[in-house]
Design a protein that fits this description.
Pfam families: Thioredoxin_3. By secondary structure, this protein is an alpha/beta fold. The chain is built from eight helices and nine strands. α4 packs parallel to α6. The relative contact order is 0.13. The mean pLDDT is 97.
């Protein structure tokens, strides 16, 4: 039995025909381990989505593969979304199945990368050029959170623009040990880690990009900010 309804497949197929221009790679890191509760469902979901357009290319790798090490993948299931020539590298990730409201995030990411048309202002694009530190933006979500996709899409688009930013969605219920590190209570909970300087910026809520870029600047400058 499919995960997507037939009417949803038809709708997405039409949307992809109109929006997709270049190939997009969906790289799934999975495992046969029984502890990976959603590996099977994540693969099925991506297979159904990739079947809707010949511009969506699905690859499946084992978590123990060299590709996982190269792309910095440690958890299953993890999805890396990138362009056909890997210009984006492994900067855009989903840790956990993109179900519920996060399915929309997956679809929009595919369209953003394929078309190159992002929902980011010219001012924000310019500001992202000034990011010099390596930043990891982790957005903790739950499938039932209607505000979480906005926060994830901002992080992912920032990663599409800046080579110094990695944007990661983390499904809190699926990976409670990761969420517990930052005492995640409400979602979306965003953690921006400066991997060069060691400082951390945290906030809760789906802020507009004009606010998030200020948090990014704080993180880049080495400031510790806690807005939980």
């Amino acid at each position: 039995m499919g995960l997507l309804k037939n009417e949803d497949k038809e709708y997405l197929k039409r949307e992809f025909e109109n929006a997709l221009k270049n190939d997009v790679r969906l790289i799934l890191f999975s495992s046969e381990d029984e502890h990976c509760i959603y590996c099977k469902e994540t693969r099925q979901l991506l297979e159904e989505v990739s079947a809707l357009s010949d511009k969506i290319l699905l690859e499946v790798h084992d978590i123990k593969s060299e590709d996982a090490k190269t792309m910095g993948v440690e958890h299953t299931p993890t999805i890396v979304i990138t362009d056909s020539d890997s210009r984006l590298g492994s900067r855009i990730k989903f840790i956990g199945i993109p179900s519920g409201y996060e399915f929309t995030t997956l679809i929009k990411d595919i369209m953003f990368i394929s078309s190159g048309e992002l929902e980011v202002s010219p001012e924000t694009r310019e500001a992202l050029k000034d990011v010099n530190s390596k930043l990891l933006i982790e957005v903790y979500v739950t499938p039932s959170c209607p505000y979480c996709p906005k926060a994830v899409l901002v992080a992912h688009q920032f990663a599409m623009i800046s080579e110094n930013i990695e944007g990661v969605m983390i499904e809190s219920l699926e990976f409670p040990s990761l969420a517990d590190r930052w005492s995640v209570m409400g979602v979306p909970h965003t953690v921006i880690r400066n991997l060069d300087k060691g400082n951390v910026v945290q906030f809760v809520g789906a802020y507009p990009e004009t606010h998030v870029i200020n948090f990014v600047k704080d993180a880049d400058e080495g400031k510790d900010v806690d807005m939980r």
